[in-house]
Amino acid sequence: MDPNDGFRELGRQECLRLMAQVPVGRILFTRRALPAVRPVTFGLAADGSVLLRTSVTSELVSAIAGAVVAFEADAFDARTRAGWSVVITGTATLVTDPAEHTRLLREGPPSWVPAPDEVFVRVAPELVTGRELAGGRTLHGVELTS
Amino acid sequence: MDPNDGFRELGRQECLRLMAQVPVGRILFTRRALPAVRPVTFGLAADGSVLLRTSVTSELVSAIAGAVVAFEADAFDARTRAGWSVVITGTATLVTDPAEHTRLLREGPPSWVPAPDEVFVRVAPELVTGRELAGGRTLHGVELTS
Q: Which pTM value belongs to this model?
């Protein structure tokens, strides 16, 4: 981390508490050797695992299943220049256990677009890092945008 | 892209227009062979280049200078389940031309945390892609979070 960019490191529990407050995060993966990102809604398990729900035929599943990915969520207030960013890095695996799949189907709210081929992907919380920016400073100490 | 996840592809000009509306984006890069992400304020040049300002000694500069990176910005409304995400992918280069550096120092608002070693990084808009989600559907058709 940059020692001089105005951020404070967050502990694991702080990270998980903050991430649980937002409905949308971003899954980072590699596609054709290029960095790729996809915003997704998500669930956060008690152990910090990130749970995604998508179609078994989706590009996302084929791109991340079995790969080490990063899942990021953040919130920033442009007015106060305050905010936080949390990243959970770990291996993404398709949930194949029927009992767990059924439990996830039950415990998650109903899908808005039910699909017969819905699957769950779990990102293991192998690395949980986060940073908080206090108000009054901008990211990397700069505000290039008006 | 997933054909069935409720997103609409955006054109290049739509992408740049939307990205110009938000103050903070996310730079995606690789660190120790792992996907990494860092929220940053940014500027958008007329040609779609993304301009970042940071310290020449920052981890970010050493991680992305000369590398192909992705820069993402998005905005989602959890209430209406509508939003957009834009990604600019290209090579990140340190601005070394003194005249351009001076121009960027002048045209950007003053830094909140002036540093003697500020540098600008430009991400070339080699690939500009974006997707819009109409209201009434959730990302990948699901809302796992309450």
A: 0.86
